[in-house]
């Protein structure tokens, strides 16, 4: 049940429901059959080769125990799988038992899942056993699936009659609709491919909310929402979906009025228990500001303004007398990236300054700056404190924590917040990137902020090269949608201790669309 920190919460949930989009349906069929090949040169050790069989020849073969077929639909899809069967000889005298596996990548499909070593639930993997008691009919699996490949294994069949698959189809769903913004002119062939995969990633994650990953998690996260909304501005322009997500978060705030990190839609919208993540709470304010820029919908922004103010009040409660954000003041989840060992002290200081500035800009757009006239002064004092305690002026880099860690994300958030100016930021980024022990981002989420910081510092050539190398690297390794985690030096990087649990279509990875549209002169 929703909390009532804000009186209009139930009304906000009603408005969220009113903005719920319709899903567009596309019927997909397999385009080829494929065979797995173990290959140390392939991403995560597996690739698919085209089989000598075709879907049609498979449909003509009797199903027999021990058979295994892998269908390739030729694209990533989110939706519902249907199978139909047909009798070939005599009448059915026993069920047919099939093991199904849907997946996004060859290695996910062919790596043994047992023993399960990930700390996420084994049930996220898209394998099912079904029993067909009546052939000559169609079966639609109730579970929504996401992926490109489907393996069907026959594990039970009678010897006294013959049946075959009749048709395999997939009802692909998305709320994205048609692209409303044309692809930028002047892209190279590689940049065009990077842009198109970004579009498909965003399309797949646009369901009845902006999902983070349609294969795994299948929920709305505030950090993903921020990046998806930026890419949506320059592609599908489905701003009602953004509005719905903003209202869902507002309607489901925690008991103290803070934005929760993530929300489930079903059976009714609800927040994940104990899911407070202050970095994502603050990014909700930025999403609201960007929504107002996109739509000029002051009614919604004014409606939700008290929620934005509450997020800043909460963040400021962590400051000590030196205007330093004390990450130890209360137990709190502070997330900037999936990268073991990342010290978040400096990034959090910078993120708070950024949120103060963003929220003040939102207030000015609404004519409410007098309500928060103290924000600029606090931002200045926090910036001064950051330069005093967190900036190594000799090396020209931001450091973080008691061990003076140098990380890329400490530099990027110092730039994003304006604590470092363009000249200082370029120096910090160049120095940190050149240091052999500087901690790099481990995901496209963290890498997004690196690219953004480069562009803010005038490092246009470096930003373009890094984006093309990083996101293009995923395409060269077989991506048709962008992945949740990617390290060019570690194919098996997983935040969950087992790489098949990773999502290979993840919302926070779609932002080449944003960059290529927002900075056309850089990518021509």
Which fold does the CATH topology of the largest domain refer to?
A: Glycosyltransferase
Note the overall shape: globular
DSSP, total strands: 14
Question: Helicity level, as a percent range?
Answer: 25-40%
Estimated structural class: alpha+beta
The percent range for strand residues is 15-25%
Number of domains: 2
CATH class of the largest domain: Mainly Alpha
- Total helix count? 15
Can you offer a commentary on this structure?
The chain is an alpha+beta fold. It has two domains: 25-173, Jelly Rolls; 189-518, Glycosyltransferase, CATH 1.50.10. The protein has 15 helices and 14 strands. Strands 1, 2, 3, 4, 5, 6, 7, 8 and 9 form a nine-stranded antiparallel beta sheet that branches. It has a three-stranded antiparallel beta sheet with strand order 10-11-12. The termini are far apart.
């Amino acid at each position: 049940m929703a909390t009532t920190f804000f009186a209009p919460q139930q009304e906000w949930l009603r408005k969220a429901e009113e903005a719920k989009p319709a899903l567009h349906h596309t019927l997909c069929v397999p385009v080829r059959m494929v065979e797995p090949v173990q290959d140390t040169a392939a991403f995560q050790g597996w690739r698919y080769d085209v089989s000598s069989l075709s879907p049609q020849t498979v449909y003509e073969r009797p199903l027999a125990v021990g058979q295994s077929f892998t269908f390739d639909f030729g694209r990533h899809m989110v939706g519902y799988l249907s199978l139909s069967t047909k009798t070939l000889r005599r009448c059915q005298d026993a069920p047919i038992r099939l093991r199904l596996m849907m997946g996004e990548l060859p290695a996910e499909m062919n790596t043994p899942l047992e023993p399960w070593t990930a700390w996420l639930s084994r049930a996220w993997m898209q394998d099912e056993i079904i029993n067909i008691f009546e052939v000559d009919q169609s079966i639609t699996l109730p579970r929504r699936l996401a992926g490109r490949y489907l393996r069907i294994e026959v594990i039970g069949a009678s010897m006294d009659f013959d049946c075959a698959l009749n048709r395999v189809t997939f009802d692909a769903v998305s709320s994205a609709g048609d692209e409303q913004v044309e692809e930028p002119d002047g892209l190279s062939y590689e940049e065009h491919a990077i842009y198109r995969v970004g579009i498909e990633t965003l399309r797949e994650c646009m369901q009845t909310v902006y999902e983070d990953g349609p294969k795994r998690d299948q929920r709305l996260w505030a950090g993903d929402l921020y990046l998806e909304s930026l890419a949506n501005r320059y592609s599908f322009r489905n701003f009602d979906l953004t509005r719905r997500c903003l209202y869902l978060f507002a309607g489901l705030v925690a008991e103290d009025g803070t934005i929760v990190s993530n929300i489930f839609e079903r059976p009714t919208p609800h927040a994940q228990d104990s899911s407070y993540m202050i970095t994502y709470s603050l990014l909700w304010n930025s999403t609201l500001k960007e929504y107002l820029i996109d739509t000029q919908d002051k009614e919604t922004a004014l409606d939700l303004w008290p929620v934005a103010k509450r997020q800043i009040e909460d963040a400021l409660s962590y400051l000590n007398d030196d205007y330093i954000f004390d990450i130890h003041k209360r137990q709190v989840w502070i997330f900037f990236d999936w990268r073991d060992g990342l010290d978040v002290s400096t990034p959090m200081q910078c993120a708070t300054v950024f949120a103060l500035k963003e929220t003040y800009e939102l207030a000015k757009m609404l004519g409410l700056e007098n309500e928060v006239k103290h924000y600029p002064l606090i931002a200045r004092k926090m910036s001064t404190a950051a330069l005093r305690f967190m900036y190594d002026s000799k090396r020209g880099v931001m450091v973080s924590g008691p061990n003076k860690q140098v990380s890329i994300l400490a530099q990027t958030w110092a730039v994003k917040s304006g604590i470092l100016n363009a000249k200082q930021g370029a120096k910090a980024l160049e120095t940190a990137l050149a240091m052999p022990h500087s901690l790099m981002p481990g995901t496209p989420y963290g890498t997004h902020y690196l690219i953004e910081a480069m562009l803010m510092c005038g490092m246009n050539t470096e930003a373009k090269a890094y984006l093309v190398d990083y996101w293009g690297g995923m395409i060269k390794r077989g991506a048709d949608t962008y992945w949740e985690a990617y390290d060019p030096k570690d194919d098996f990087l997983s935040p969950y201790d087992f790489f098949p649990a990773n999502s290979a279509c993840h919302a926070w990875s779609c932002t080449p669309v944003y960059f290529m549209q927002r900075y056309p002169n850089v990518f021509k």
